[in-house]
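#random but structural
TW: two for the price of one
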Amino acid sequence: MPPGSRRETGARIEAAVADWLNGQGCKELARNFQVRGGELDLVIDDGGVVAFVEVRYRLHGGIEAALESVGRLKQRRLIHAAQRYLQQQPKLRTRPCRFDVVAVEGSDGDFRFRWIKDGFRIDD
C-alpha cells in the first residue's frame, strides 16, 4: 500500500471513530495533536473527563491485535503528548483525564469498534 493510501486510510478511520464517539455522547476537543515525540489521535470530553484516544486498526489479526499494539513505548509517547496538550489548554488541567484505546476492524462502511476506557494508566 503506498504511503499516501495508508495516511488516507488512517484519516478515514479516525474520522469514523470520531463520529462514532460523538454518537456515544462525547465531544471532540482535538484531532491529530502533534508534538515532538508524540501524537494524539483524538482528544474528547466524555462526560467531563478528558480522554486521550489512541485509534488502532489492524487489517489482519482483529481487535485483539490492535489493542496489543499499544506497547510501553507508544504509551510513553502518548503520555508525553497529553502533557503537552494540557500545557496548552489551561482550562482542562484540573479535569480528570484518562487514556482510552479504540480498536477498529472491518472496512469502509462496515467498521466495528471496541472502546477501552482507561486502556492504560500513567502508573502502569
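TW: number two ↓
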Amino acid sequence: MGIITNGFTSLQQIRLERTGLRDHFDLLIISEEVGVAKPDARIFEYALAQAGHPDRSRVLMVGDTAESDIRGGVNAGLATCWLNAHQRETACRSSPRLDGDLFKRPGAAPV
C-alpha cells in the first residue's frame, strides 16, 4: 500500500510521522520529489513503477479530494473511491468518474 501526496517533502514527512500513518505504508510518493503533482497521471505512473508495475485492475486510488486525488486516479486509468468525509459536492469543473464514495453506500457509518 502506498501514499501519493502533493506538497513539500519535509512538511509531508512530518505530517505522516506525527499521525503515525507512515509505518502503515510501503511506499511514499511526494510530488516535490517527483516533479509533478496530482492530478497529473505521471505521478501515478511513477508510483506504479515504484510498486513494481502491479496489475491496474488490482489498484484502487482512495482519496479525500475529488479534484486532485480522484481526477488523478481516473487520469491514470485506476479505479477510484472518494473518501468524502464531509459529504461535499464535487468541486470539479466536470464531474470525475467515481467508482465509489465511502459515505454514500447504504448503511455506511461515519468514520
